[in-house]
Design goal:
The chain has 116 residues and is an all-alpha fold. Helix content is 64%, strand content 0%. Helix 1 packs antiparallel against helix 2. The longest helix has 48 residues. The radius of gyration is 23 Å and the shape is elongated. The protein starts with 24 loop residues before the first helix and ends in a 12-residue tail after the last helix. About 7% of the residues have low confidence.
Length: 116
Amino acid sequence: MSDLPDLDHLEPAHSIDDDSDDDGMPAQITADMKANRQLRRRYAGRAYGLAAGCICMWSLLLSAQGVVKTVTGIEMWSDQVLIAVTTGVTVSVLAAFLGVIRGLFPGKDERAPAPP
């Protein structure tokens, strides 16, 4: 689905239990950052796959319309139906894609505060 490598099998460089500090925060922060990057990579790939799949299905719909119209001379769907489907799919895919991207890569005001 995507060209990104699967990093699920990798262990963090430092575990939370074997750190040199008394409070364990640097190891925890490092583990959290690594897990966050892995989740972003995974869900960004899925969002891209969803958008690419919808575009492929839309292309197949238009191709089927063209083939049937050429071979039989009969339209499967009217122009109004094709416009409605195209608009609906485009708006839905963009809304879903932007929602996922905003969740994966929040702006400065939406980020969680840094730990003390």
